[in-house]
Amino acid sequence: MRTIAEHGLAALTMAQLGREVGMSSGHLLYYFRSKDELLLQTLMWSEEQLGAERRAALSRPVSVRERLDAFVELYLPDAVRDPRWTLWLEVWNRSQAADEPTRARQLELELAWHRDLVALLAEGASRGEFGAVDADRFAVRTRAMLDGFGTHLVVGLPGLDRAAVLGHVREYLDGSLTPAG
């Protein structure tokens, strides 16, 4: 993951990657068949690790809003060239040329985040912490916003840092989810 993030997949050869991880390029191709499969498998491994962190954060005995803030903090990149986000950028970039089974595997990774967000929104509304929203539609829009901000952060566009993005997101969630009355 670190090597892909540092070099980008296009500039990375299987021989170079093999040297970094102590394997021959032939062994890498035997196990992964292609650089695209290697990329997707690396992303799946990364998301499995992050998914465990997300499940732990979402099961904490705190308010739904605090868990929602933890979700957002886990979702967004930590810094410019965040390795897990760099993997996502590489996968999104290659998605147009990917076959349907590959895109379906990618979608399943994205849907794990979506389902957790929908569940949080529904729980918050049922407990009266949030106003009533269509949880699925709200989750789609929120993830799109997070993806946009996340992309800006990971590529290092000037004008926004992680703290500012978290502030924008909190302001949006406060304005959109505060119960009426």
TrEMBL record:
- InterPro entries documented for this protein: BetI_C, Homeodomain-like_sf, HTH-type_TetR-like_transc_reg, HTH_TetR, Tet_transcr_reg_TetR-rel_C_sf
Please list the residue ranges the record marks as binding DNA.
13-32
**Signal sequence coordinates:** none
Q: Which UniProt keywords apply?
A: DNA-binding, Repressor, Transcription, Transcription regulation
Superkingdom of source:
Bacteria
Domain HTH tetR-type per the UniProt entry, residue ranges: 1-50
Cite a single Pfam family from the UniProt record.
TetR_C_6
Q: Which PROSITE patterns match?
A: HTH_TETR_2
Gene3D superfamilies membership? Tetracycline Repressor, domain 2 (1.10.357.10)
Name assigned to this protein: TetR family transcriptional regulator C-terminal domain-containing protein
Organismal lineage:
Bacteria, Bacillati, Actinomycetota, Actinomycetes, Kitasatosporales
